[in-house]
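Re: duplicated header lines in exported structure tokens

Our pipeline writes sequence and tokens for each protein into one text file. With two proteins the header for the second block appears twice in some exports. Here is an export where it did not happen, for reference. First protein block:
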Amino acid sequence: MIQINQLKLHIDHTKTDLEKKIRKILQLKQEDQFSYEILKCSIDARKKPDIFYVYSLGVKTAKESQILKKIHNPSVMIYKEKHYHLPDMGEKSLTNPPVIVGAGPAGLFCAYLLTKAGYAPIVIERGKPVEERQKDVEKFWETGVLDPTSNVQFGEGGAGTFSDGKLNTVVKDPSGRNQFVLQTFVEFGAPEHILYENKPHIGTDILSKVISNIRNYLIEKGAKFYFETKATDFILTGNKVSQVLTDKQNFESQAVVLALGHSARDTFEVLKKHEIPMEAKNFAVGFRVEHPQSMINEYMYGKAGENLPASPYKVTSNFPNGRGVYSFCMCPGGYVVNSSSEEGGLVVNGMSYSGRNGANANSAIIVSVTEKDFGSSDALAGMYYQRKLEQENFLRGNGKIPQQLLGDYRENRLTKEYGSFSSQTKGQTVFADLRGLMSEDMETSFLAGMEHFDKIIPGFNKCDAILSGMETRTSSPVRIIRDENLESSVEGIYPCGEGAGYAGGIMSAAMDGLKSAEAIIKKYRPSY
């Protein structure tokens, strides 16, 4: 197959226009037959109002080697497809199934690979199956009554289930894991366009169905799922794990994957009790900031982009005080959601459905946090700092999402009403004072960042931009140390995914889940 990169066509082009361009680039005659597939597609709006789709294509035709010899174009080359392969089994006997703690993307994809390899893993998850979890989350948003084990953070699919369903990652992928994950999503119900979009997403509405389909397949093929089952402790025999204790039953295993997610604070405390090596990890906190999606679209596309998808954005800056300020988990056409998981604490996140057709764009505008901010080198100090912020945030809103307009935040006055647009939220809201949640140094950086971003996207620093407090769980505040074989210093424990400090989103977590499964396969051979 021949690969063509940087094939550019106006946004109004037709399929015929695309095929004509392929013929022209490859110098094909009218009678020459060919087929093609889209490998990548992105939007180039740098020269608006002239906006283009930019394609990378794979083309199959006769005499490909001859065509490549006669065409001297750096954008035309032989296509080298990445094939993901299961590793060979190790020789060490595995006498009990691997146990995976957590059914987020890391845990699910670890289970998927182990199941395909014949290991029949056990997955334990403190929350509920995604169908029941959705009902609990909707009830919480409507009533404010929280189920600490079934919410936006806990339950099948992990925290990413109630997000934008973003499937892009910056992780380098020579092994083909990235494409394998995307193809698996498609196999279980995701739309095919995620295979080639530059920044694919499927939205929480589609993602939840895909997760359910994956789980049903795994059960059919021999995996076992235990929902509403919380890991409470681990039995270590010498320097090896031998058992996982839960609030329902216990599981013997020589291979335990800790796909905990970034909110499993009680489990982190159990690991610390056993002196399993961990370290505090830098993260960031801030506010969800809403703007009209039409404002973002007009900046990104101009008037020519009326029929294009809701546009994302990414902004970042660094200041002399060492603080980084940047956008995180940007949700085009999305909603600000109450993502709390602890009584007396409140945290927000962003979410979009697959259509991304909400009136507002929202993003977390966050400020970097280091050990200096939480004042301790203890491995869990960052976690306790997060909890303290969430508890104070809860008090500011009396259990509802506290909100303040940017102009009022800047002038340190209470907001009385929305400005030119209203908030798009899932969960109850109230106007409240958000000043003082962050340190003075962090607040200064946040406001400077908003002012700087206004120079990039005009209107970003507008007075009636809506702030929602607080986004604290941007990433895990903890890293569970592992070696080159992805194993803790305690043999048989495999820290994995975002909660363990090795991923930052659905795709990177899923890919890390694959890596943990590969490590188990390379070491063990099932004998049960």
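Second protein block, exported in the same file:
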Amino acid sequence: MSEQAQYRGWSPSRSAAGDRNPWLVAVIVSIATFMVVLDTAIANVSLRYIAGSLGASIDESTWVVTTYLIANAVVLPVSGWLSNVIGRKRFYMICVALFTASSLLCGLAPSLNALIFFRILQGLGGGGMPTSEQAILADTFPPQRRAQAFALYGIAVIVAPTVGPTLGGWITDNYSWHWIFFINIPIGIVSLILVNWVLVEPEALKRERRESLAGGLRIDWMGFALIALTFGSLEFVLDRGQEDDWFKSNTILAFSLIAAAAFVFFLLWELTERDPIVDLRLLFRRQFGMAFLIMMTVGAILFGSNQILPQLLQTSFPYTAELSGLAVMPGGLAMLVVMPIAGQVTGLMQPKYWIAFGLGAVALAMWYSTNLTPDATFWYFATVRIFQVIGLPFLFIPINTIAYDGLPQNKTSEGSALINVARNLGGSVGVSLANTELLRRSQFHQSRLVENLVPSSPVFHSTVNQMSQYFIHQGAPPTTAQSHAYGLIGQLVSGQASLLAYIDVFHTWAIFSAALVPIVLLAIKRVSGPGRAAAAH
């Protein structure tokens, strides 16, 4: 073992590659990652078709997404513990198999209730995979090559949500919604075959598992119940809060109180438990704790922008689901180019400077996005999306670098679980807050714009007359023409208010990203010398 590897606590005995090329391992685990992240984004654009096919309302069909996210949120925090108990390779293959089988069942679902149940199974399988994948990469690659490995993995994590809406819209428009689930089957089968053939269960992990189970399997049932109740309730609140008017709804209020109470009891229980199901003490490590917080930010920006921009195109502009997906796709292509570059250059500076650079790039991109106008073109949106995502690789890779910096060897699975919790939790919070701001600011701007629509206003009076004359020339009676004129003015005001609300969201993201830059520079420690030197090779 090299001096640098010893210093960083890395040992080749924990590698999942065995005597094979470790890059083959990185490619293989990225296959299933792409499938899971793609499926998370692809179902959103097909809800209307699912609802019509299964005789359900649009509101009922949203449970297809909500239940998946809840199941994902419940299993993710405990996936590190499950991986250690079951065996990392075995647990990973169980998750891939469950996700693939439930995808088949989702495509064959005869009713909405059946589809929701199968989506829960799919969420349980999908939620357990990222933890094993990132732990495999952290243990397989030494620190000097870890950034490039996470860059390859990051392509799947970040590009899949960009491709999802386009692919989902195309499949739904040209085939049927069933195929958004069926496409997972061949990918899952290929992933299972390759994982079983190439990946090995390292002897060091087998030994650690035997030692931990020597005194019998001790299961922290209370911790599991509390974390499931916390994240399940929280995900429900975040997903349904805006639709149900937040705390004005007794249901949302009840689930919020349940989530808060369960979380407090969970903290007290886990911090005093001898064998906790989630090792919260990792969050008190300065480097890891900061990595957790910044990853929440990345999740909020990534998932929030992935939803907000296509939503903007389909509501304020006449874009179909497929066309809106095409508009954001250049961002994914830009990511394919930038991610490997970020992996190569990360070692040239301390990780905290790259994180600050990435946050600054995101802030500038979001500020540029506020130049939105009603006559914005397809290429404007494509350019905006490229600017929005081009800084994310310089966040994703350094965050994982500092997260595993100095982390004990036997804590990589638990650390990976918490980092993935941060990304998903940040994404849920980001989407929820963005949608709330959109509604509130749209109402605000509409009320301000309506203040000028009074009969005593010469401009308003002239506009009504011009529009009425237009409708009269189209053959409408004078009384009907005036009603049409008022209706058209109302639509214009609503559209302008909505556009201004989206601009406000971009402003908020820009300010938030910029405000984090000095915090990152002050709070994150320098990575130790040998590790940095290794990363530069």
